[in-house]
Amino acid sequence: MAASSRASPLSMKLRELKIKVYEAWEFLSGYRGCVLLPENFKVEVRKEFGDLRYKETWIRALARYEALNAFHDCLDAHSLVLHTLNFTEDRWDYEFRHRIFDEFLIIPDALNLLKLGLEQLMSDSFSSSDRRGADGFYQLVAEQQGRDRFPTELTGRISIAHAA
Asked: What are the residue ranges spanned by the domains of the chain?
């Protein structure tokens, strides 16, 4: 997606957004070990997020499901920083990064997982080149600072990691 087509945070077409929400819901349901009944998809989205006619409903659903998937699918904490939450402009979910990140931070123990990921990234196991590879994550955190959503302690650690 070109940067010019991302002028609005709502630039993804509703049809495509619904497909992305369904994929995220399907993945999350599989993780939870649920029997997947496609006819329950819209019922669940309506129950949790509201009126299906509004794009905002689908954005909220996408953010929640993507955040939960990021948390539950995390095998190594550093992968959250280097990959999962390392939003770059070429990713399909870039325009929803703040919403996904906000939802992620609400999950119990998610912040501790991010701290662990940053500690791992700062260890001798990773090079300064690896650390610079998380620029999308660092930028996301920098954008969060004025939003009263991110703890100062973690922001300081990220500044140090980014400078390394």
From this structure: 11-73, 76-164
Q: Is the pTM of this model over 0.90?
A: no
Query: 45-65, pLDDT tens digit by residue?
Result: 999 999 999 999 999 999 999
The rounded distance, in Å, linking the Cα atoms of 62 and 123 is: 33
Q: Provide the pLDDT confidence category of residue 115 given band limits of 50, 70 and 90.
A: very high
Nearest to 12 by CA among 66, 79, 48: 66
